[in-house]
Amino acid sequence: MNPALPKKQREKRKGGLKKRKGWVKEFIFIVGGARSGKSRYAQALAKRISKKVAFIATCTPQDKEMKKRIALHQKARPRHWKVIEEPREIKSILPGLKEKFDVVIIDCLGLLISNFLSTGLNERAIEKEITLIAGFLSKAKFTSIVVSNEVGGGIVPGNALARRFRDLAGFSNQIMAKRADRVIFMQSGIPMKIKGE
What we know:
The chain is α/β, with parallel strands linked by helices. It has a single domain (about 15-195), classed as Rossmann fold, CATH 3.40.50. Helices cover about 40% and strands about 25% of the residues. The strands form two sheets. The chain has a seven-stranded mixed beta sheet with strand order 6-5-7-8-4-9-10, with helices on both faces. A three-stranded antiparallel beta sheet has the order 1-2-3. A hairpin with a 2-residue loop joins strand 9 (about 180-185) and strand 10 (about 190-195). Helix 5 crosses helix 7 (about 160-180) and helix 6 runs parallel beside helix 7. The longest helix is centred in the last third of the chain and has 20 residues, at about 160-180. It is globular and about 45 Å long.
């Protein structure tokens, strides 16, 4: 437990778990801008909780620069973690993880939305997918950590597809934040709690 926390908060938390009728798992949502440290923080949290971690990567390498980014992320992860590369069918694979892992990371929600858009799914269908995932994670028997992009702080995008993505990312973040036990905003590598203890 973090000794910097007040004693009352430390007593309610143990090894990343929250006391709620006994020690149970948590749904943690981490959001931030590009290179804000959100993925690194998510991995640090997972390492503190357990060695039994599943990492769901939603990224699909489409160019050399993206492949390089993926390689850097792979080097940062412990080798014993189970890595699942799944660009879209997140809700289908989650039920099979509940007996095998203590922590499941989904990184990241923004790329998942982008992948949905590339298949031609409309806004309503995408929001339904995100709602189903959030609903499952809020009741899961493992600690879940979802990483997402904050894209609403800049200028209005200049094309329709980019505006659709921005809006969907914003709505999806709201869905996740509503169901999560804890929401953390990352700014310049510094985690700032905006929901939960």
